[in-house]
Amino acid sequence: MLTLLFDGVAYGMLLFVLAVGLAVTLGLMNFINLAHGAFAMGGGYVLVLLMQRLGWPYLVCLPAAFVVMALAGAVLERSVYRPMYSKPHLDQVLFSIGLTFMAVAAVDYFMGSSQQNVHLPEWLRQRWEFGSGAWLLGVGAYRLFIIVVCVLLTLALQAALTRTRFGSRLRAAVDDPRVAAGLGIPVNRVFLLTFAAGSGLAGLGGALGAEVLGLDPGFPLKFMVYFLIVVAVGGTSSITGPLCASLLLGIADVMGKYYVPKLGAFIVYTLMIALLLWRPQGLFAREGGK
Amino acid sequence: MSAPPALDAQSLLARDARWRPAEIVAWLAVFAATAALPQYSLLINDIAILALFALSLDLVLGYAGVVSLGHAAFFGLGSYAAALFAKHVNPDPLLGLAVAAALCAAFGALCSLTIVRGSDLTRLMVTLGVGLILFELANKFDDITGGADGLQGVVMGPLFGALAFDLMGRTAVFYSVATLALLFFVVRRVVHSPFGWSLKAVRDNRLRSGAIGLSVAARLAAVYTLAAAIAGVAGALLAQTTGFASLDVLDFHRSADVLLALVLGGAGWLYGGLIGALAFKLMHDLLSAITPQYWTFWIGLILVVLMLVGRDRLFKPWTWFGPKGEARQ
After folding, report:
1. Helix (H) or strand (E) holding A233
2. Does the beta carbon of B304 lie under 8 angstroms from any beta carbon of chain A?
3. Could you read off the pLDDT of B207-225 as tens digits, one per residue?
């Protein structure tokens, strides 16, 4: 029971790191980016390549995944994403589906369609157990590591958003890009940086979660829905909303798969539709927001 | 627009609804091609089914302005309904078509409750979610649907009790093309009616169309129900003409493919679905002949380029290099 809860929290934190970039993209530019999962997949493959082909240590590969995907995000934002901001939602959806298809087929071509194994270092494969009976808590070192990294990232993100000058510019731009631009905030550059950071975080999440989530070329399509659920349910106005939504989703998914394996995904989707019908703007939307 | 005098709504509607010679020629050509190309029967059958599916999506997207990522839900439901009905109840194809249409209409009416509220993102998520739920259900209840192996052993009775479905697909292709033509005429009539106009008003501005007294929710519900029924018929046609239904009919790929087909041909224009389906299937055939495993890459590339160039500028190459047409907003 507690073990499941613990695994659910780890899964939820991972989803949060994966999806937070998407939340900012949607909130800031009102851009529906279905290709976000492709960045996460990219991060996972960067990790696999660096570890297995070049033999880099695990802890070096994680930041490397972040950097590579952030650069890729920045390049793509500047070259192909930016002209799409002013287009209707339908165009954005089709555009990003197209990107996703390309990423899936390209990875399939270069890496093969089988699932990739990640060889975790020895110190991540330990497992401790506390308590007994119904209150047994099994703590895997790997999941604990995920939670610690994600909590640190969340705290850093929160601090960056509320304490720094860049954070206040970003929040101003999310609230009203036109007025923010009028006040001399370089909205385009703020957005470029944010997009890069979001893609990097997705890459980091993909690398971190490669073992839990499973890494194969179908990854972007498989998890697209989960990212969108996090954003749609959590709202785009703060990072607390997506955080709560991803924890909820992670716990519900793990519990659902354990107790009713036949209907696990079914429950998650039904829950999402019910929530969206009840609060179309998301659970934690601000009153009077956009 | 050259004849300004008659501006009352009735004559405007009548003018739009009139059949143009080119349209009649086009439909005659469709039937002529079906008759003249027996070796391509299976391909033409596929195209007709995709065209009908795209026509249904056009009602939702092009006329009512609802972005749907889960239209395969209705296609798959109709497909399974027709296959199961033929297997367990009655092998008559027309009866099966009617049952699938009725079931999908009922399900569409239920789902329409979910698309009247919220933003584009919410609707996108909800339609996607409905599609995924049906996929999961079909996957889990594999004793009914056959799960990943598909539902096999569907044997169709002869059409009108006389025309048997043959291996070459001659009966099947005429059956599909005739159904497509019939439903096209129905949809054409609908969009050139006052109801069709009110849909366009809802698409262009919900707030204002509500303010002039249109019941936005009721119109959306009506068109969504109709579109669901048509998508169900398309799915049923696929199941009946191939004698097979598998999880593939509910797959996300199918929703994305039909969206691409419709966008290729142009949404909000009934023939867009037909032309798009033709273009998409031919492209698919060509690409998968060159790279069987990686054709989705080229489909993706086409989508990306198409969106960057702009949907409405694709067929106007002279605007590609001029000043960007962003002024039209």
Report:
1. helix A219-234
2. yes
3. 888 898 888 889 999 999 9
**CB–CB of A94 and B296 under 8 A?**
no
Listed ranges A107-121, A276-290, B90-104; the one with the highest mean pLDDT? B90-104
pLDDT digits (tens, 9 = 90+) for A246-281: 888 888 888 887 887 777 778 888 888 888 888 777
Residue whose structure tokens are 């009506």: B222
CB under 8 Å to B190, separation ≥6 — which residues?
B59, B196, B226
Q: Which residues of A226-240 are buried (b: 16+ CB within 10 A; e: fewer)?
A: bbbbbbbbbbbbbbe
Shortest Cα distance, chain B CAs vs residue A38, angstroms = 13
CA dist B274 and B277 (Å) reads 5
When pLDDT is cut at 50, 70 and 90, the band that residue B234 belongs to is: very high
Question: Touching check for B287 and chain A: CB below 8 Å?
Answer: no
Nearest to B59 by CA among B148, B240, B183: B183
Give the whole-angstrom CA distance, residue A230 versus residue A247. 9
Q: Are B26 and B33 in contact (CB under 8 A)?
A: no
Cβ A34 vs Cβ B307: under 8 Å: no
Number of structural domains (chain B) is 2
CA B249 to CA B145: how far, in whole Å? 12
How many structural domains comprise chain A?
Answer: 1
In terms of domains, do B159 and B305 share one?
no
Helices A36-53 and A58-76 pack at an angle, to 10 degrees, of 140
Contact A272 B303 (CB under 8 A): no
Is B293 in contact with A108 (Cβ distance < 8 A)?
yes
**Nearest residue, CB atoms, B256 vs list A92, A97, A109:** A97
pLDDT in tens, A134-186: 677 777 888 888 888 888 988 998 888 888 888 888 888 877 888 888 998 88
pLDDT of B328 reads: 37
Residues B241 and B303 in one domain: no
Radius of gyration of chain A measured on its C-alpha atoms: 19
Whole-number pLDDT of residue B242: 86
Q: What is the pLDDT of residues B56-69, one digit of tens each?
A: 999 998 888 888 88
Give the Cα separation of A227 and B120 in Å (integer): 16
Per-residue model confidence (pLDDT) at position B178: 92
Instruction: Report the pLDDT value the prediction gives residue B101, as an integer from 0 to 100.
Output: 94
Q: Give this complex's ipTM.
A: 0.78
Residue of B61, B69, B297 with shortest CB distance to A105: B297
Q: Which domain holds residue A25?
A: 16-125+159-278
Q: How far apart are CA B162 and CA A47, in angstroms?
A: 63
* Same domain membership, residue B324 and residue B284: no
Q: Are A19 and A230 within 8 A, CB to CB?
A: yes
The answer to whether position B92 is within a domain reads yes
